[in-house]
Write a structure and sequence with these properties.
The protein is mainly α. It has helices at 8-36, 40-43, 58-66, 69-100, 104-116, 121-134, 141-166, 169-177, 182-211, 214-219, 228-232, 244-279. Helix 4 packs parallel to helix 7 (141-166).
Length: 280
């Protein structure tokens, strides 16, 4: 057992590396929060500080006065939630089939799912625009939501396939021996163990759709239908000059939903994993 123990210096090095990584990840967000609460005089200072000397909410008031942030946030929320829900509902049974019935066809399908993620957005936008135009879904949240579902579905399917394979097939066989039917087995045995994976996949689909910018910029032209990432670009001037204070305030507000959703969901993911470990 001693061969697997980590020495003191090695453990200290691991913690130091982890701390450096956390600082690297947190720096942009902390600087964004600091900028959001700084007055205009501090934003133009040659010696910027981490903590605002005279914190103010003027940037938030100006951001709401200049742009329709609440309407844009509502559009983003509707598209992201719908896309996440539909992607999970469609991907879950497909992932179960790919995981439980392995063959050359399912292997090729899984490989294509991974390869499809390598295609850049620019190659897809023209044919995608033409398809949506024929369906009369250009400049509509329904069309944008459909794009988000199609875009997040391959990775959602890949994630859920891995979660299904992690559930022992012996549990389903034991339930069948006890007289449970296929539907009862899926609902009572497999479903609860897949819950953490389903939640994690839905979270991924939601965050991807919430932060997406390129498709929303190209497909939505009406100002009342634009999503939050597109509206944030309106704080940039014609020559690239940014209204830094309101932009930072609006960007800070745009990051809050993802943080709140993750904070709520992560406990359920951990609890579901522990429950699955006990059941297995």
């Amino acid at each position: 057992m001693s061969a697997f123990r980590t020495s003191g210096p090695a453990r200290a090095g691991q913690y130091a590396a982890l701390l450096a990584y956390l600082v690297f990840l947190a720096f942009p967000f902390l600087w964004l929060v600091s900028t959001a609460f700084k007055p205009a005089t501090e934003l133009g200072s040659l010696h910027p500080t981490w903590i605002p000397k005279d914190p103010t909410f003027d940037n938030f008031r100006q951001a709401f006065d200049e742009q329709p942030l609440l309407r844009a946030a509502g559009n983003s929320l509707l598209a992201a939630l719908t896309a996440a829900l539909v992607a999970v509902v469609v991907a879950t049974p497909m992932a179960y089939v790919l995981a439980r019935h392995r063959s050359r066809l399912t292997g090729a399908a899984t490989g294509w799912v991974v390869v499809s993620q390598a295609f850049p957005f620019v190659l897809l936008i023209i044919p995608l625009f033409l398809v949506l135009k024929n369906l009369h879904l250009v400049n509509s949240l329904a069309g944008l939501t459909l794009v988000y579902v199609v875009w997040s579905l391959p990775f959602a399917l890949w994630m859920l396939t891995g979660y299904v394979r992690a559930v022992p097939a012996e549990l389903e066989e034991a339930a069948a021996v006890d007289g449970a039917g296929r539907l009862r087995t899926l609902v009572s045995v497999t479903g609860p163990l897949l819950a953490p994976g389903i939640v994690a996949t839905a979270l991924f689909a939601f965050v991807t759709a919430w932060n997406e910018f390129f498709f929303a910029l190209v497909l939505l032209k009406s100002p009342e239908k634009q999503t939050l990432p597109v509206v944030l670009t309106h704080f940039l001037g014609a020559e690239g000059a940014a209204d830094l204070g309101p932009l930072a305030a609006a960007a800070f507000l745009a990051t809050l939903p993802s943080l709140v959703v993750f904070a709520i969901v992560q406990r359920r993911i951990t609890g579901g994993m522990l429950a699955g470990a006990v059941k297995s």
